[in-house]
Write a structure and sequence with these properties.
Shape: globular
Order of helices and strands: EEEEEEEEEEE
Structural class: mainly beta
Mean pLDDT: 97
Number of strands: 11
Oligomer: single chain
Helix content: under 10%
Number of helices: 0
Strand content: over 45%
Low-confidence stretches: none
Radius of gyration: 13 Å
Distance between the termini: 40 Å
């Protein structure tokens, strides 16, 4: 049973750094050929893909967020972490981590965590 769980603070101050961790169980984040993703959904809007870290450790980011986004991993803890710097209230959203098994098939998702950026 593959499970993902997001954790981190629910409120972040403007200009600060948003940091969220996804803990994975049931499979290793180094297993070929899975990709581990961060997606967010602002209120009243659709899902927005933010970036991913591959089984190899390679990272890829949404171009519009690349300058502010970093994804890293701790393989010993089977976790990967999102860091989004210089946040504004426009970054308020529900943040999800999810696995991509290929073919853009995000087959396992965390439950999501609400992050509010205070002004």
């Amino acid at each position: 049973q593959v499970q993902l769980r997001e954790s981190g603070p629910g409120v972040v101050k403007s200009s600060q750094t948003l940091s969220l961790t996804c803990t994975v169980s049931g499979t290793s984040i180094t297993t070929k050929y899975y990709y581990w993703n961060w997606i967010r959904q602002p209120p009243g809007k659709g899902l927005e893909w933010m970036g991913t870290i591959a089984y190899s450790g390679s990272t890829y980011y949404m171009p519009s967020l690349k300058s502010r986004t970093s994804i890293s991993r701790d393989t010993s803890m089977n976790q990967f972490t999102l860091r989004l710097i210089s946040v504004t209230p426009e970054d308020t959203a529900v943040y999800y981590c999810a696995r991509d098994r290929g073919y853009l098939n995000l087959d396992y998702w965390g439950q999501g965590t609400q992050v509010t950026v205070s002004s």
